[in-house]
Amino acid sequence: MREFVRIELTNDERERLEGMTRSRTLAARLVQRAKMILLSAEGQSQREIAEVLGCNFKTVGEWQRRWIAAGFEGIEKERPGRGRKSWVVSVVSQELLRKTMEDAPDQATHWSTRRMAKALGIGATTVRKVWRQHGLKPHRIETFKLSNDPQFEEKLVDVVGLYLNPPEHAIVLSVDEKSQIQALDRTQPGLPMKPGRCGTMTHDYKRNGTTTMFAAMNTLTGRIIAECMPKHRHQEWLKFLKRINRETPKNLDLHIVCDNYRTHKHPVVQEWLGKHSRFHIHFVPTSSSWLNMVERYFRDITENHIRRGVFRSVDDLERTILEAVERHNEAPRPYIWTAKATDILAKVIRARASLNAPGISRDPH
User: 147-177, pLDDT tens digit by residue?
Assistant: First the structure.
């Protein structure tokens, strides 16, 4: 075996290899191989490279040959291992997968690694490995709700059309209320974060009242109009619409995207809207709050300002919310809607087909 193997690299190859050596997420074996090739390109011998990297010089020679033969594919692609294949893969794997997806354990709602291992008489590590290979996570469940609105398609196309192709000489506002925000005070002070320990807060709390946040987000600029009120009746909704009317240019139409909450359709509200022709209301389909873009802002303000907050009064809570809105408006950033109505509709059709497939239980219990 030759001690010196001549390897020449292009600028692009060198940059990619150097990037691999700096990576903190790449597997250590791939980082080591990239270093072997870079050191080879510098003219070092196999034994010198092996000494620097703490490996056998024959290993260096092997990866040099693979690089010369196939480049990056040669050092990144793993060859199938030798030796006897695990009997578990061929004998138990299919039964494990079938049982995971079709059966439920006794005295439990879902499988754990230990329950499955006991049921099949295999090790929990094997169960975990097979689940990981097939992307199965029995301990997790996601929520969903398909809209039964008979006008779903019409409303979907209408709202998404506003997001993707807003009308000229108009403002599109995503409007909603976040109700029953609780002003929670903890019963004891929390402990600060320190190396090796996260911050803490008590599991119990004192309720100091609630507020409702009304918000209107300009879908083009991301700017927020917000107000906190103690209730969320049609009176408060109408009051907020009047504020929107005052704080937006009078020469522009207003397209309001909102949900089907009954106060939004109250006769008093409808009468007022009839006298203000620049307001155009667009209702999202029922059970489709995800279609209202301001919900994304509600999630952000909850995560960043409310959930971990300590509020000794409703005034404290409202002050925190309105200050957060004020800071947001100093440098507003819009949420960019990218999904087309046709793509969403196709996904909903597939979901309905799956939900109506034979064997799908509709028993909520």
Answer: 888 899 999 999 999 999 999 999 999 999 9
Q: Which CATH number fits domain 152-190+203-342: 3.30.420.10, 3.90.380.10, 3.40.50.10090, 3.40.640.10?
A: 3.30.420.10
List the structure tokens of 151. 């006008």
| Per-residue confidence (pLDDT) for residue 90, from 0 to 100 | 58
pLDDT tens column, 241-256: 999 999 999 999 999 9
Tokens matching residue 232: 């969320």
Q: Rounded distance, CA 231 to CA 298, Å?
A: 17
Please name the fold of domain 11-76. Answer: Arc Repressor Mutant, subunit A (1.10.10)
Token pair listed for 188: 């004891």
| pLDDT tens readout for residues 72-117 | 998 988 766 655 555 545 567 888 888 998 899 988 999 999 999 9
pLDDT tens digit sequence for 301-333:
999 999 999 999 999 999 999 999 999 999 999
**Contact residues for 213 (Cβ-Cβ < 8 A; gap 6+):** 177, 178, 181, 226, 227, 228, 298, 301, 321
pLDDT of residue 89: 53
What would the DSSP string read from start to end of 238-292?
Answer: HHHHHHHHHHS-TTSEEEEEE---GGGG-HHHHHHHHT-TTEEEEEPPTT-GGGS
Dist CA 120 CA 128 (whole Å)? 13
One-letter amino acid of 284: V
* Rounded CA separation 53/196 (Å): 31
- Domains of the chain, residue spans: 11-76, 87-133, 152-190+203-342
Residue 229: is its pLDDT beyond 80? yes
Which of these, 141, 333, 115, lies nearest to 219 by C-alpha position? 333
Query: Which residues make beta-bridge pairs with 257?
Result: 174, 282
The pTM of the full predicted model, rounded to 2 decimals, is 0.68
Structure tokens at 330: 């100093």
DSSP states of 289-340: GGGSTHHHHHHHHIIIIITT---SSHHHHHHHHHHHHHHHHHS--PPPP---
Residue keyed to tokens 């990239």: 34
Q: Are 114 and 108 in contact (CB under 8 A)?
A: no
